[in-house]
Specification:
60 residues, 2 helices
């Protein structure tokens, strides 16, 4: 099994509705949540799902 590790930045912003996060390196990868803990979990899941849709060539 080939495990790959990626370093991906996530920007988290707070506004009057809660938290919003996005990854500048992954176009369209974003999420929202009501608390800081929730947004961290949500953006982690969004990143994992985003990466799972990429082909091996796109992951290079």
């Amino acid at each position: 099994m080939n495990n790959k590790y990626y370093q991906i930045s996530a920007i988290i912003e707070k506004d009057e509705y809660g938290y919003y996060a996005y990854c500048p390196q992954l176009e369209g990868c974003q999420s929202q949540g009501d608390s800081l803990e929730e947004i961290k979990a949500n953006i982690q899941e969004a990143i994992e799902l985003y990466l799972s849709t990429l082909t091996e060539k796109e992951k290079l």
